[in-house]
Each structure stands twice: as C-alpha cells, then as structure tokens.
Amino acid sequence: MRRTCYIHPMRASKTFVQAALSAQGHAPNKNLGQNFCVDGEKLTAFVGALPLDGQTVLEIGPGLGGLTELLLTAGARVYAVEKDPRLYAFLKEDLQHPNLTLILGDCLKTDYRFLPGDFIAVGNLPYCITADAVNMLLSLAPKGMLLMLQQEAAERFFAEPGQKIYGPTAMVTGLYYTPSRLGTLPPEAYYPAPTVTSALVRLVRRADAPTEAPKELLKFAAACLRMRRKTLYNNLTNVPGLTDMLAQMGLSPSVRGEALTGEQLLELYRRIHS
Is the pLDDT of residue 256 over 60? Predict the structure, then answer.
C-alpha cells in the first residue's frame, strides 16, 4: 500500500527553518546557495509527482530536511548528499531514519557507484551549481528526476533548436526523458528569499532512450556548440568525412550545431562512431 505524505510537513516551514538555524547558531551560506523551501504544500505535491514507495532516491542538498522528510514519508530509500558539514551534523542528529543515509561531500565529486541502475534523483539545486548539477545527473541516467531550480535554468530543458537557450541540456534531455513543468515557486516560498523565481520540473525516462551513455552525448553536444556562431564543420574540424555525413543526413555543410535536433545529434554521433 502506498504511504501518504504529510499534508503540512513540519520541516518545510519558515518557523522550523528559522528555529533550527537559530538553535544551531547558523546563518544560510550564500556561497553554497542555501535557500530553504518553506512552502510545505508545494513540496508535498512535488514529491507526489513520481511514485516513490520502495524506490531508491538520490537527494542533492537535503539542507534542513524539509524535502527529505517527505521523501521518507513517501516510502523512499534516501541517499542524501550534503556539502555543508554544519547541516550534515544537524541532520545526523535531528533526522534519524532507517531508510536515510546521509553523505557528507560535494555532490559534483561524489562516487555514485553504490546506486542501483533504477534510482530516482531529487533535489532543490543550488543556483550556483545548477548547470553542473544537471549535467551530472543526466550523466548518471536515473530513471526519473524531480528538480527544483531557477526558472531560467529550467526552461533549458524545453528549448527548441535555434533558440538562444537551446544547448546540450535540451538536446540530450529530449533523447532520454520526457520533461514536464510542475509549476513555479516565488521568492517568498524560500528562506531566505532569493531574487528569482524557481521552477519545478519532472523528468521521466523514455522507454526508447538510446543505449549510448548520456555523458558521451553531452560531451559531443558541447563540442558541436563550442562556438555557436561557427558552423558544425568548423566546430568538428577533426572529424574526417563530416561533409559527406551531413549530406547523407540531408544537412547543409554550413549548418550550425544549434540547428540540430536531439535525434540529428544522435544520428551524427552514431555515424562518427560507427
């Protein structure tokens, strides 16, 4: 039987966050992008966007445990990576649960080989590392993701060829996942309040996802877009026979990388590596 989340989780509230920080004598670390979500209702709906009962979840940046508490209540087995030793020590003492494993470390440098292949990634991503964190998670290829991130960064998942924000994130995400917008969070949904609006995004792995490692396609997409104003040919000067490959795909030799769809990127990658 599915377990139900708390309707109003105690931790995801301004009262709890302020009290917890005060009791520890801590202030939010701006350098680590610490903005704690205090909208319990939105967090509850967010966690309910994927079935989590019995699932292994990787949580990036648990902070004071507002989201972590909901994940545990939903029945997930949670591995939470926290960089701040102060918050790690607080959670170690204050949020003990048999299904929670806390990891002290940088999420971008952690060895995730302990995770099963069908895990789910969840996180309130710090604005200062959003792009790197997204690429890291895409490279790990979880079966699903629930992400809270700056709205501008979230729109990169949905960008189309030719748009200014179109890049490796959109090209590769669309090959492996079906992304959905789950809503937005205003600055006042956080403590302390940031200066930007945040967005909630769900990514569900496609049944027809490529067998290639997402990490390799991300690298290839970055190479294709290394200099956006240059042609694909100029960005991939070390690829022999590129002009013929493009012709076989029905593409002009002067095509730019930003014009490629995800499917065309994959086809070109396969032609080059065949």
Answer: yes
